[in-house]
Amino acid sequence: IDDLINLTPGTTISGNGINIRGVGRQNSETGSLGSTNGVAYYVNGFYSVVAGTVGESTLYSESVQFLRGPQGTRFGRGVIGGAVSLWARRPTREWVGQAVAQYGDNGFWGLGLNVGGPINDKYGIRFGWQHFDTEETSQSNIYPTKAGISVENNYLEFQLEGRPTDRSHFWLRSTAFQYMSDPGYSAPPVYNTPAPMGALVPNPYFGYGVAPPSLPRQINIDTKGADRLTGNQVHILNADYDFGPVTLYY
Question: Quick check: 168 and 237 in contact, CB under 8 A?
């Protein structure tokens, strides 16, 4: 998402989302659910609250469009700033596949692939999978507990597109995302001091009194945290029917 913003004049991004020509949300993306955002985000025509959804891997996304505002009913229902719209790669008329392999510092590696093609003259399918993993953390913990940034992400995709009749067409895209990661910490964090939210952190009075770390990327954690996301699924169906004088889009 940062690369997309850097390539697009007049746009900036922060924790509040994307601004287009200086217009956007001035608070948290999820802090004002139900209110109109200055910039609207869409994935395959479906509205999204979080800007990060338009930053998919190019292994699966075909194009991202930045549309200046104000926008009409089709993109944003009058949002003044504009809209950002992502369209995914679709099933192809011939069998085509792509793959990517990555390797980096701290034992980082990634694999991804997709394959798509026709079932028959009327229907086509597409499958995708991508995995990210870091075997070593980029942070060094003083306490004898393995803690620090560690990522393990999985992304799955399935698509079905078809034309049951000469007048009807549909496109279904189903995705699932999960991660089993360990969080990173800002140095020097210690869990043996009173928490700003009361006691809603692991062992706020654990009693581990070693001096805070002073080296870059060095932390002092006595209790390991965890970031987990499972069961996250998104199903987006686009359908249209040609009545002759008009076409109905869903």
Answer: no
Record the pTM. Answer: 0.78
**Mean of pLDDT over the chain:** 84
> Would you call 245 exposed, middle or buried from its count of C-beta atoms within 10 A (0-12, 13-18, 19+)?
exposed
Cα distance between residue 114 and residue 157, in whole Å: 9
**pLDDT tens-digit readout, 156-192:** 999 999 999 999 999 999 999 999 888 887 655 444 4
What mean pLDDT is predicted for residues 29-51? 80
User: If you average pLDDT over residues 85-107, what whole number do you get?
Assistant: 93
Cβ–Cβ under 8 Å, residues 94 and 115: no
Cα–Cα distance, 156 to 132 (Å, whole number): 12
The pLDDT of residue 197: 46
pLDDT value of residue 245: 95
CA dihedral (39, 42, 48, 49) in degrees, to 10, reads -20
